[in-house]
Design a protein that fits this description.
386 residues, alpha/beta, Aspartate Aminotransferase, domain 2, Aspartate Aminotransferase, domain 1, 7-stranded mixed β-sheet, two-stranded antiparallel ribbon, 11 helices, 11 strands, binds pyridoxal-5'-phosphate
């Protein structure tokens, strides 16, 4: 049997008519840049995310970059974030000449450990970027309290977390900005690159709209130095057509997560399962921890099961960040996670038979009795959803 990590063709088969019609409408209109399709998408996603404004941009990366630019963050400034994330989170900080300052993660959730932030705040700190990794939100209360106390901006990296909730509030609606990605593998994926900033602040939204269009207002009169960070109308149309399905897909991901939890918990295998509290985890990824991770990955690959490592090298150990001078051992939990985590197929269209196959392959791998449970800092084999 073949079980890919993600099956976008299976998803497309269920929504082909709607997506094709939405794309055809854009072709009929020949309005490809900004315009009504983008505005409709902005309104719908902002509402979905519990925010009053949405600004469509070219990618999740550019969403983060544009937020930092809106705050004039640059040379001499420091921005606190996690080293255990996709490159974009740290890359945008460095691209503007600011310094990424890392704090280690909570080993249960893989999200930044807010209790370590105070030790990293200096006169130069301007912002915090918590990342809601795998679809589960970071512990936002202490982040917001610290931000308020020190006058810092909070930019939520919600690229993997559209619709996730923390104490009943949606990803992107708690900080000053929320950054979403419509990269095709995200829970709400476009047919290419796309992203959005959501915010409850009108002035910030207006500045973002200006920045994404070369800082021009009106056209050809450049108030500020921006860039071309616009969301295509075609991508907006695809995202809008998919949005009504998002809650159903999320529910399917949550069902699949619960089923994996049940299968693995009963098995006694040395596999540590995702930890979640009572908040809404949208399972962009279902990530297990195992000690013989690389061996398990190759074994599953031979069996036709797609998996991925998110992420094999934490930011402070990336070659391009050598200049930050943080060697191995600087962030032990991030480094350990980078060696032990493995994402299993969790996409909505995954069948029970496919899921059983994935589980049975993992069981077969451990059949030699080797491997020991990994330490997580939380109880092993905690279940995902109550
Ligand atoms: C945590 C995180 N931040 C930022 C991004 C960047 O988003 P994009 O690929 O749309 O530029 C991603 C997407 O891969 C991500 O997972």
């Amino acid at each position: 049997m073949k079980v890919p990590l993600l099956d976008l063709k299976a998803q497309y088969a269920t929504i082909k008519a709607e997506v094709d019609a939405a794309v055809a409408e854009v072709f009929e209109s020949q309005q490809f840049i900004l315009g009504p399709k983008v505005e409709q998408c902005e309104e719908a996603i902002a509402t979905y995310s519990g925010c009053s404004h949405g600004v469509g941009v070219s990618s999740g990366t550019d969403a983060l970059l544009a937020c930092l630019m809106t705050e004039n963050i640059g040379v001499g400034d420091e921005v606190i974030t996690t080293p255990y994330t996709f490159f974009a989170t740290a890359g945008v900080i460095a691209r503007l000449g600011a310094t990424p300052v890392f704090v280690d993660i909570d080993p249960r959730t893989y999200n930044l450990d807010a209790s370590q932030i105070p030790a990293k705040i200096t006169d130069k700190t301007r912002a915090i970027i918590p990342v809601h990794l795998y679809g589960q939100m970071a512990d936002m209360d202490p982040v917001m309290q610290l931000a308020e106390k020190h006058g810092l901006i909070v930019i939520e990296d919600a690229a993997q977390a559209i619709g996730a909730e923390y104490k009943g509030r949606r990803a992107g609606s708690i900080g000053h900005y929320g950054c979403l990605s419509f990269f095709p593998s995200k829970n709400l994926g476009a047919a290419g690159d796309g992203g959005m900033v959501v915010t409850n602040d009108l002035q910030r939204a207006e500045k973002l709209k200006c920045l994404r269009d070369h800082g021009a207002k009106p056209k050809y009169h450049h108030k500020i130095i921006g860039g071309n960070f616009r969301l295509d109308a075609l991508q907006a149309a695809v995202v809008s057509a998919k949005l009504p399905h998002l809650d159903g897909w999320t529910a399917a991901r949550q069902r699949n997560a619960k089923r994996y939890d049940q299968l693995f918990s009963k098995s006694g295998l040395p596999v540590s399962l995702p930890f979640t509290g009572r908040d809404r985890h949208i399972f962009n990824q279902y990530v297990i921890r195992v000690l013989r991770r690389d061996e398990l990955k190759s074994f599953l690959q031979k069996k036709g099961v797609g998996t991925e490592i998110y992420y094999p090298v934490p930011m402070h150990l990336q070659e391009c960040f050598t200049y930050l001078g943080m060697g191995r051992g600087s962030f032990p939990e991030s480094e350990r996670a980078a060696n032990e985590t493995l994402a299993l197929p969790i996409y909505p269209e995954l069948t029970e038979a496919q899921q059983d196959y994935v589980f049975n392959c993992v069981r077969e791998f451990f059949a030699d009795g080797a491997g020991e449970a990994v330490r997580t800092g939380a109880a092993n084999l905690s279940t995902s959803m109550d």
